Every structure is written in structure tokens, then in C-alpha cells.
Amino acid sequence: MRVVYRVLAVIVAVVAAAVTLVVVLPSEPDEVVAGPVTAPPAAPASSGPASSSSPSPSPSLSPSPVVAQASSSAAAEPSSEATAPSPGVSLAPGYTAMEALYADPRIPRLTRKVKRMALPRPARRTVADERVGLAVPKLARPWKVSGVAPFTSKQVLPKTRGTSVRGMFVTCPLPIMEQKSPRNTALLAARWTLTHHPRGAKIRWLASQPVKHGWMLVYRVKYGKHTSRAAVVVMDGGMSKPGLAFVTVPDTQRKRWPDIGRVASGVRVLG
Q1: What is the dihedral of CA 55, 56, 57, 58, to 10 degrees?
Q2: 190: closest CA among 200, 210, 175, 180?
Q3: Residue-wise pLDDT tens digits, 164-220
Q4: Model confidence pTM above 0.70
Q5: How far apart are CA 44 and CA 41, in angstroms?
């Protein structure tokens, strides 16, 4: 019996040791657990102005107001030696909208050498844009009414084979800061329209004159080997913001250039 008890004692001891090993030793994990995830280092903040390729809003009606550039130096007083903002970018701290305009090499000074132009008789057929309080000419064929977004009215010419540039006539609430002078407001509006011309476009003034409740500018836009004729009419239609009428026709559709004058003469206040 003693031998039996000793054998049983040895068996019990072996089983107890095996159980201990099972409890103490951790089981092998089924997969490797990733370590803590840390955020990537933040990109260094740029102290320069935003690139002109950054999205904008105007009709995009947003593609556009001149606003102060947010930067770490925005709270500081502007230095008298500060450089002028680059063309096509947001206004640098300390600069007015007109100073940004004058610093833009795409926009020449509007001098007294730029004369008035003789305007044709206003068109009888009109399109009412109640959002801006203006009535504008309804241009004859081949112009046709198109989807308005992001504008409040829109007429276009048919597309020309081989190019995406075509005639366009739109209205919208003023997409830039209104100035005390309607002339200056029209200048800023003309600068804004360059966002709707091919890259590298530059302006040459053709006509400038007051109109009832506003101002009109006619100009040539040159981009590469091509040009467009364009005009803006800024007019107070009695709404919270003045209305903007903008027309542009490329040289590939030069037969419709006379419509520029029809637009300039035909914009009026509703009522």
C-alpha cells in the first residue's frame, strides 16, 4: 500500500505542476497588436499669401470677395515697407482692396484717356433678375438661356469646336467689396471676372462711363494668342447688394462682339 500511496503522490505532484504552468504561462496571441498610433507632425505654417490656385468661391459668388489673409502676422501693425500682395491672391494685412488692385500687373490704370463709347438703343426683350433687382437684355440667337448656378441669370453662346471658351452673359449679386465710388466698384468687379477667363489673362480698357445707378466698363482680355471682349455693369437695383452684369465673348465668336454694347446699354433697374 505504501508503494501505491507513493505512486499516487507522485502523480498528484506532476498534475499540479502542469496546471501551474498552464496558469502562469500566457497563451500565444493570434495576431500582432499594433503599438500606439501617433499623429503625423503638423506641416509648418506658411507665412506667405495664399496661392492663387486655392479655391475661391464667385459665383462663384463667394469664387471672390477680397478678404484679409489670415496669418500669424495679421494682428501686427502693417509695416511701411511691406510688399504689395501678389496678383490674384487674397488681400494681405494692411492693404485695401484698391491697393491690391493697383498692385495687380494684370490690371492697368484707368486713366482719362479711356473714353466713353456710343451705346446702341436698349433691347426691347429683357430678362428679369429679381435677386439683384435688374432687368437685362435677352440676347438674340444663337444666345440661349442656360442653367444659372452659381449666377442668378445666365445666357451663353454655343460651344465652338476645339475650345472650351465661349460667350457668356451673367448677372449676380456683387461678388466683391462695394466701394464708395461706383467706378472703383466696377474696377474691382472687372478684376474678379478674370477668374472666368483663361489663365494668364490681362485687361486693356476700351471704355468707361457712368450709367444710371452705377458704372460701366468695357475692356479687352488677352490670354496667349487669343482675346475676348468683355464688359461689366455695376448697378444698384435696390437690394442689399448692388447687381453685377458681366458679358464676355472670345475672338472665336467675334461676330457676336456687337452684343457687348447691347448688354452695356440694356441693363436697367426693375420697375
Answers
A1: -120
A2: 175
A3: 899 999 999 999 999 999 999 999 999 999 999 999 999 999 999 999 999 999 999
A4: no
A5: 9
Class of domain 126-269: alpha beta
Break the chain into its structural domains and give their ranges: 126-269
**Torsion sign over Cα 25, 30, 32, 35:** negative
Question: Which of these, 218, 148, 216, lies nearest to 183 by C-alpha position?
Answer: 216
Residue environment code for 88-99, b if the CB has 16+ CB neighbours within 10 A, otherwise e: bbbbbbbbebee
What ranges in 59-181 are assigned the alpha helix state H? 97-102
Q: Classify each residue of 132-146 as buried b or exposed e, where b means 16 or more C-beta atoms within 10 Å of its C-beta.
A: bbbbbbbbeeebeee
Strands 134-137 and 126-129: antiparallel
The x, y and z cell numbers of residue 129, run together, are 433678375
